């Protein structure tokens, strides 16, 4: 049975760069690696509806914290069997965003801390009702929120297909989400968390998989 590792952080924090680096290093070591990126835009109807809502479609859908959270949770639930199969067939499965994103973003929207009701609701929904596998480890991209937001703005300015959504344009929300992520990491929410500052990917890879 392979190891399940979830990579978390704000948009612009560098998750894709980190995942690519870990895959390259572990593959070179002879390990079998699989990756999943959530939300699965272009592959999942629920993820696409959530994205459309965040860009102004579907009336007041975006206003409902729990409706949006449910859409993203259903996207993951639809991939549960694929994740389980990949975990059996590979040494490591990396998840670029996972359940903790739902906890952090919606706690941020409701201005709750990690002890708030929505974090418990997300865990009960996704790990409980939907039976999503719990990661063996989490990695939090610990770059400052201001740095991540500037990267997201720069990326959007240079790529017309990467228009920032309502969450990404809300700087106050991004700061609150960052604070929740850091508390989740401090509390080792659901499994051990590791902080990565973007410097030494080799050391992180060795720490995650000795």
From TrEMBL:
NCBIfam families for this protein: PRK07933.1
Catalytic activity, as annotated: dTMP + ATP = dTDP + ADP
UniProt keywords, alphabetically: ATP-binding, Kinase, Nucleotide biosynthesis, Nucleotide-binding, Transferase
UniProt organism field: Gordonia amicalis
Cited InterPro entries: P-loop_NTPase (IPR027417), Thymidylate_kin-like_dom (IPR039430), Thymidylate_kin_CS (IPR018095), Thymidylate_kinase (IPR018094)
Residue ranges of every copy of the Thymidylate kinase-like domain listed in the record: 7-189
UniProt keyword annotation of Nucleotide-binding present: yes
Top-level EC class: transferase
A GO molecular function held by the record: dTMP kinase activity
EC number: 2.7.4.9
Protein family according to the UniProt entry: Belongs to the thymidylate kinase family.
Gene3D superfamilies: P-loop containing nucleotide triphosphate hydrolases
HAMAP family: Thymidylate_kinase
Primary gene name: tmk
Entry function: Phosphorylation of dTMP to form dTDP in both de novo and salvage pathways of dTTP synthesis.
UniProt name for this protein: Thymidylate kinase
């Amino acid at each position: 049975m392979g190891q399940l590792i979830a990579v978390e952080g704000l948009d612009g924090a560098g998750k894709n760069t980190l995942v690519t680096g870990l895959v390259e290093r572990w593959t070179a070591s002879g390990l079998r690696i699989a990756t999943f990126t959530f939300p699965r835009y272009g592959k999942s109807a629920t993820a696409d509806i959530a994205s459309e809502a965040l860009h102004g479609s579907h009336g007041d859908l975006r206003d409902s914290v729990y409706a949006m959270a449910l859409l993203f949770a259903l996207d993951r639930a639809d991939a549960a069997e694929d994740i389980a199969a990949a975990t059996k067939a590979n040494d490591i499965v990396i998840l670029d965003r996972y359940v903790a994103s739902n906890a952090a973003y919606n706690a941020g929207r409701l201005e709750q801390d990690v002890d708030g009701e929505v974090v418990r609701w997300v865990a009960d929904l996704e790990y409980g009702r939907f039976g999503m596998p719990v990661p063996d480890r989490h990695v939090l991209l610990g770059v400052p929120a201001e740095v991540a937001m500037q990267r997201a703005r720069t990326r959007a300015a240079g790529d017309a297909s990467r228009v920032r959504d309502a969450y990404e344009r809300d700087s106050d929300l991004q700061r609150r989400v960052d604070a929740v992520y850091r508390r989740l990491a401090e509390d080792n929410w659901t499994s051990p968390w590791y902080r990565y500052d973007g410097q030494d990917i080799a050391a992180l890879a060795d720490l995650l998989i000795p």
